[in-house]
Amino acid sequence: MLPLSGITVVSLEQAVAAPFATRQLADLGARVIKIERPGVGDFARQYDETVMGQSSHFVWLNRSKESLELDLKDPADLDVLLTLVDSADVFVQNLAPGAADRLGLSAKTLRASNPGLVHASISGYGDGGPFTRKKAYDLLVQCEAGLVSVTGTPEMPAKTGISTADIAAGMYCYSGILTALFQRERTGEGSEMTVSMLEALGEWMGFPMYYATYGGTPPPRSGASHASIAPYGPFRCAAGQQVFLGVQNEREWNKFCANVLGDEALAADERFVMGSQRVAHREALTELIEKEFASLDADEVLERLEAAGIANARLRDLHEFADHPQLSARNRWREVPTPAGNIRALLPPVSVAGQEPFMGAVPALGQHNDAIRADLADRNRKS
Question: Is 225 inside any structural domain?
């Protein structure tokens, strides 16, 4: 039996943050009923058509869920939702600010009839303050949290290539729900919890915030290099190839000079004798490293780095990641059904001995309409 078997989650969700949280609950065995707009559904269904005609975001975030179409402006459909929540363990919503309250779906209202309910809300900026009703898309929250200011190159700031603010909020919502369920086991009482994208991403911005606040200047944008560690990042070798490496401490620096660059004396060069000096003289250091690597192909450089115990990596594209030998060797891929056919999906990153996560189908819009309504009708007859 999976840890959340017997737990029912009703989620009025869309886009990324809330679906990411509830999908992880489903991985642990929870029953997740996803409420969608009739005929349209979660707008993430229309983000693209790259996965056999389906959205890459949607198939990633919505496996193992049941899809129920409800028009919440229709009193009968709203009553269906209220009936479901009345017997649920968890209710999740990431509607626009104030929308859930206007529908009668506040924590106070829902927990009045279901005191054991864990009520979780995700918003862009949180309730209270001048940004309460401000629209909050991932890029915009990355900007407000300062992430874009420290990402990219010295010439051009950049957003991250994934929905970092959404993912951060989804992760904290997920862990918060687990904590609330654990608390309920002790007290018998549910709870109300809120997560804002700004505050979730703000937690992840701790290093650059402290660096800038107490150091006087922000960490410089350094592309794929590290703002405060050198050598760390990409280095060119023969035929225009690149390898990535990281030297974290003085012991590694000495080994890198002696065993990779073949120049033990370089470790004592006054320009590079300590971490801050290597950062200050990054360009000269990079020039020395790339001069040594110029006659070596990527495999030869990686062999030297491995032999010396220096952390390293290849720059893999996404096709290469999907065929990564480590994931294959660890049997980390599974097949997940979708309305258009099976797709490959990675197992959840936490492996629990003796447990196989639940990785069920990605639902078609409204796929479970009849079954859920029939179950509610049957319950009404029995009561």
Answer: no
Residue 226 is among the residues annotated as catalytic for this protein:
yes
Cα–Cα distance, 95 to 144 (Å, whole number): 20
Q: Which residues of 104-121 are buried (b: 16+ CB within 10 A; e: fewer)?
A: ebbbeebbeebeebbbbb
The tokens for 260 are 């990779």
Number of domains in the chain: 2
Pairing of strands 65-69, 191-196: unpaired
Please give the residue range of the domain that contains residue 302.
232-315
Name residue, tokens 């030869």: 300
Asked whether residue 70 is assigned to any structural domain, the reply reads yes
- Does 211 map to a domain? no
Catalytic residue from among 57, 226, 319, 368: 226
| Pair 337, 310 in one domain | no
- Phi, psi torsion values for 101, nearest 5 degrees: -65, -40
List the chain pLDDT tens, one digit each, 383 residues. 899 999 999 999 999 999 999 999 999 999 999 999 999 999 999 999 999 999 999 999 999 999 999 999 999 999 999 999 999 999 999 999 899 999 999 999 999 999 999 999 999 999 999 999 898 999 999 999 999 999 998 899 999 999 999 999 999 999 999 999 999 999 999 999 999 999 999 999 999 999 999 999 998 888 888 877 889 999 999 988 899 999 999 999 999 999 999 999 999 999 998 898 999 999 999 999 999 999 999 999 999 999 999 999 988 889 999 999 999 999 999 999 999 999 999 999 999 999 999 999 999 999 999 999 999 998 888 76
In a domain, 214, yes or no: no
DSSP assignment of 284-325 equals HHHHHHHHHHTTS-HHHHHHHHHHHT-EEE----HHHHHT-H
